[in-house]
Write a structure and sequence with these properties.
Blueprint lengths: L25 H19 L5 E10 L2 E3 L5 H11 L3 E11 L6 E11 L4 H9 L20 E5 L17 E2 L2 E2 L13
Antiparallel strand pairs: 1-2, 1-3, 3-4, 4-5, 6-7
Length: about 180
């Protein structure tokens, strides 16, 4: 998304271990992980503005993390099939000599009624194994989503927060500033 906005950036992966207490809700989990990632990278680059993001998938109040393996991915995808769930993306901005800001966006997602064969082929591809909820909404081969209600950019794991701040050389980027090709934000 930053490249789409012509904002210069460099990707520096965080080395945090993504563990959460069992009783954590989705918003708290996403915000905690986004901030932890931004702070960890910010300590390595103390003169830089750092943006950390994390996305969690929540189904019936249960956080669905990355699947433990192929069997777990099949179970998660079968559970989500033809049902609504929530995708929560948090974005944390850490700036030198400034307080961190963490915001989140929640998008409701309805999965399509995909077949067992489609699940098996998708899992065999290995693609769902590193994704929260065992799927990538933008996957061009599997096309798991029937519809969604929320942020267009969130499907790429980096949301534009409607009332929050994502820094662009000191200017807040708000949802009104960027429209997707289909007019959604």
């Amino acid at each position: 998304m930053l490249a789409h906005l012509d904002v210069p950036f460099r990707v520096e992966p965080s080395s945090i271990v993504e563990e959460l207490p069992i009783e954590t809700d989705g918003v708290t989990a996403a915000k905690h992980l986004a901030l932890a990632k931004a702070v960890e990278v910010g300590l390595r680059y103390p003169e830089s503005l750092v943006i950390g993001a994390d996305t969690v998938v929540v189904f019936e109040v249960r956080i669905l993390g990355k699947p433990a393996g192929a069997e777990d991915a099949v179970t998660v995808l079968t559970t989500l099939r033809d049902r609504w769930h929530e995708v929560i993306t948090a974005v944390a901005v850490v700036q030198p000599l400034a307080q961190a800001n963490v915001e989140h966006v929640l998008t409701r997602v309805h999965m399509r009624d995909y077949s067992e064969a489609e699940i098996e082929a998708y899992v065999a591809s290995g693609k769902p194994l590193d994704k929260a909820g065992a799927y990538g909404i933008q996957d061009e081969d599997f096309h798991p989503v029937a519809e969604y209600d929320g942020c267009y950019w969130q499907r790429y794991g980096f949301a534009i927060v409607d009332d929050g701040n994502v820094a662009e050389t000191g200017r807040a980027v708000r949802s009104a500033d960027v429209k997707a090709a289909d007019g959604r934000v």
